[in-house]
Amino acid sequence: MLQIRDEHVVRVEQGRTAGRWLMVTVVIAAVFIPFIVLPAVQSFFLYAPPFGRPANPDAPFNIYLNCFLNSLVMVWAMRVQGRLDRKFAALFTRVIIVHGAAAFIILLSREYYSNQVMLLSAGLSVILGLAVVLILDRGLPRRVAVIGSGERCALGLKIPCDIITDPKADLRAYDVLLTNSLTDLSSEWSAALSHAMLSGKPVRHLAEYVEEDRGIVSLDHFDLEHIPHGGLTSYRSRKRLLDIFLVVLSLPVTVPIVIVGAIVVRITMGGPAMFVQQRVGLGGEEFRIYKLRTMAMARSSEPGRATSEGDLRVTPVGRFLRRYRIDELPQLWNVLKGDMSVIGPRPEWTVLSEAYTKELPVYRYRNLVRPGITGWAQICGGYASHIDEVKNKVGYDLYYIKNFSFALDVHIIIRTVWTLWTGFGAR
């Protein structure tokens, strides 16, 4: 045990050293990219013929001012804390503050400005800030201490942690302190944690931290009171407007793809190009979902079942459509109709939904929000075909419902793009 702990300390120290070098690299990038690379790129695309109009004499100052704003956002993004989607939300707030304040000052001073430069710079700040947040979130190790008897719960953590049993131990060396209880602590532990908190160390409940770290709710400890019902209703209304906007924006690209896909399916498989099935949606209401057909036509005597890994019913063309989720694109019509959302729990076939609800009563809570084309469970767990995978998927779905927000939706969209690129979870 001592040898394992020593190896853990060595790994943590090596990780912290690598983390310091990573921070230095990000700082250098925050200076080099905005002041060396971006001015040349913006000048070329905005002012150099044949791409843009002739440059104003004051244009260089305007460009370098906005490049300074890019650098400021990158440096400020290094300070964001918390869960990844909350880091995204904090980043967007910083972009609005920095570029909004600069625009306000420029307008008051009546200095020369370019709308194209300011808009491009704001967009670049978002991209560069996201890159900083993601790099530091993945690259900086955290040294975690579990206070008292938390060995079994600590096994759920994806990162190494130390089990501290001595209240006199120095807790200031850790980045976060975890405990099974924030109230039932001895006077010695209360004093030790108080000193650690005064030195700026966060103290978290172990179960909450494990849930946040893994992005999944424990079904054994889930309670309906965890779901914010008031916020659920208000956010659902705003999200409906966002869904319509995203679908309309994507139609020029998705409609031709669906038409070509339908023609290919009809030629290679014969029969109908569309697969239509009853699914369970918001509030348990049933609706008809539309997909491009990816399987050979089933005999009427064959019982229906969920798609499994390496399912022989999937044709070669269907496998390609599933690999890049092209078969899901007709569901944009379901989104326009209001049956679905772009982001949410995956709608299940009515037959399987009834079976899963009998086996797993908390399954019905997935219907508190509109089902989605993509979602937290899809990008984290992929498809589910048997009850153990379903339990895992429900844990992800309940995590989304419990923590839904615009920032989490943005996180899911970014992860979805990566999923489409890698083909993770395709069956």
Structural class: alpha/beta
Q: Which of globular, elongated, flat, extended, rod-shaped describes the shape?
A: globular
How far is it from the N-terminal to the C-terminal residue, by CA?
42 Å
| Helical amount | 55-70%
Number of helices: 14
List keywords for this structure.
alpha/beta, 8 strands, globular, 427 residues, disordered N terminus
Write up this protein.
The structure is a single chain. The chain has about 425 residues and is α/β, with parallel strands linked by helices. It has three domains: about 140 residues, no CATH class; about 70 residues, no CATH class; about 190 residues, no CATH class. The chain contains 14 helices and eight strands. It has a four-stranded parallel β-sheet. A two-stranded antiparallel sheet has the order 5-6. Strands 7-8 form a two-stranded parallel sheet. Helix 2 packs parallel to helix 4. It starts with a helix and ends in a 5-residue tail after the last helix.
Quick recap:
The chain has 427 residues and is of the alpha/beta class.
List the helices and strands and how they pair.
Layout: H1 2-46, H2 59-77, H3 84-109, H4 115-139, E1 144-147, H5 151-154, E2 161-164, E3 176-179, H6 187-198, E4 203-205, H7 206-214, H8 229-269, E5 274-280, E6 286-292, H9 316-323, H10 331-337, E7 341-343, H11 350-359, E8 372-374, H12 376-381, H13 387-403, H14 406-422
Parallel strand pairs: 1-2, 1-3, 3-4, 7-8
Antiparallel strand pairs: 5-6
